Amino acid sequence: MAKVGKRIRAAREKVDATATYALADAVKLIKEASSTKFDETVEVALNLGVDPRHADQMVRGVCQLPAGTGKTVRVAVFARGDKAEEAKAAGADIVGAEDLVEIVQGGKIDFDRCIASPDMMPLVGRLGKVLGPRGMMPNPKVGTVTPDVAQAVKDSKGGSVEFRVEKAGIVHGGVGKVSFDEAALVDNIKAFVSAVSKAKPAGAKGTYMQKMSLSSTMGPGLTVDLASVE
């Protein structure tokens, strides 16, 4: 097991698992407690008062992070003709139609985000069993089925994050890297929480946002005071 430096150990000892922190304080502690050699992702978890088994309580959407994600995102686009050219010009990593469907069906998924022009959906629909379980199936609700494929590519490359509530009513999202300065992380976190808030479904009852936690990939989890975010 790698030795943990005095500074990191001291930072971790500051973390009180039973305490609730203001957002700025939580971000500062997350950065101080990071001890890995790689640039950890900072992650938000929101416990929501919804039961996603009911269609009218499903929470899903997309958030544009003002400071970006800090990750290199590989984007695949299903498009033909002019739309394919627009996607390539916007920086798409992989562009195709039937040929790309065959590649994906063969199990080669060399991308992180998948976009499709609307006319391609009958073709892309065949990939539901492959892309669905990975959360990569194009969907108009999160802007990945769109006639404006160029803008969708730019958004994906520039820092858009998709979110979807899990069975237990929790939404997770990566909101930047530990190397980001504190102000950038705070801005990204506020944007993410705001996007989830705006995605509140019609069937949600009682308190919608119940609890918020913040952590880094390998670091401790902190409970954040939602009032300090909103």
Briefly, what is this?
The protein has 230 residues and is of the alpha/beta class. The protein has eight helices and ten strands.
How would you characterize the overall build of this protein?
This protein has 230 residues and is of the alpha/beta class. The protein is 32% helix and 22% strand. Strand 9 (209-216) and strand 10 form a beta hairpin. The mean pLDDT is 91.
Kindly list the characteristics that best describe this protein.
230 residues, alpha/beta, five-stranded mixed sheet, three-stranded parallel sheet, 32% helix
Q: Tell me the quaternary state.
A: single chain
Provide the low-confidence segments as ranges.
none
**Fraction of residues in β-strands:** 15-25%
Distance between the termini: 40 Å
The DSSP helix count reads 8
Mean pLDDT, all residues: 91
The geometry reads as globular
Radius of gyration: 19 Å
Strand order of the largest sheet: 1-10-9-2-8
Fold topology:
Layout: H1 6-14, E1 20-21, H2 23-33, E2 41-48, E3 60-64, E4 75-78, H3 81-90, E5 94-96, H4 98-105, E6 113-116, H5 121-124, H6 128-131, H7 149-158, E7 160-164, E8 170-177, H8 182-198, E9 209-216, E10 222-224
Parallel strand pairs: 1-10, 4-5, 4-6
Antiparallel strand pairs: 2-8, 2-9, 3-7, 9-10
Helix pairs in contact: 2-8, 3-7
